Amino acid sequence: LVSVFLTGAFIVVVVFFAVVLTLVVVLFTKERTYEIGVLLSLGESKFKLLLQFFSELLIIGVIAFGISIFSGNVIAQKMADSLLANEATVTETSKTMPSNGPGGQDFGGKGGPGGQGTSKVETIDTIDVNVTAKDLAKLAGLGVVIIFFSTALTSVSIMRYKPKDILTSRD
User: Fold this and answer.
1) d(Cα 130, Cα 88) in Å, to the nearest integer?
2) Which of 140, 162, 159 lies closest to 61 in space, CA to CA?
3) Which string of b and e fits 81-91 if b means at least 16 CB within 10 Å?
4) Which of 48, 55, 107, 121 has the fewest CB atoms within 10 Å around its CB?
5) How far is residue 161's CA from residue 164's CA, in Å, rounded to a whole number?
6) Is 169 helix (H, G, I), strand (E, B) or coil?
7) Along the chain (171 residues), what's the average pLDDT of each consecutive run of 10 residues?
8) In this structure, what are the phi and psi dihedrals at residue 106, rounded to the nearest 5 degrees?
9) Beta-carbon neighbour count of residue 2 at 10 Å?
């Protein structure tokens, strides 16, 4: 159940990231429409312009990914420690509560009317959060794919125009 929830949450985050990145690239491309027109009129190929946009986003992505590797581990460890501390508090609170059953009946602390004893549950004292190189490679690959598709999707609208059309319709 937790695995399904985490997978769903991961997919939602990836889709959200892709949509936000695509919208940012759309704004970025619209701001540079005139520059694109000038470069096209000077003979630059459309492929080279797309490669330039992709390279710019990839450089930004690499820097952001590098920062997130270190900050993500620190934040994840702090969240895990916080969750563990919260769970320990909840467990301690439930141990100090009276063990009377419904209607005030005391089951004698033997697990209820059947007389079974309580089972010992192993408690977790620490959680070690670590990300493997394989995980990082998967995330980096996913980031590159998202950057590629967001660049391609937003550049289609600009690349269909001729340089003369772009330069004459300057806003």
Assistant:
1) 22
2) 140
3) eeeeeeeeeee
4) 121
5) 8
6) coil
7) 80 89 85 86 89 92 90 84 77 62 52 53 73 87 90 80 79 59
8) -100, 120
9) 6
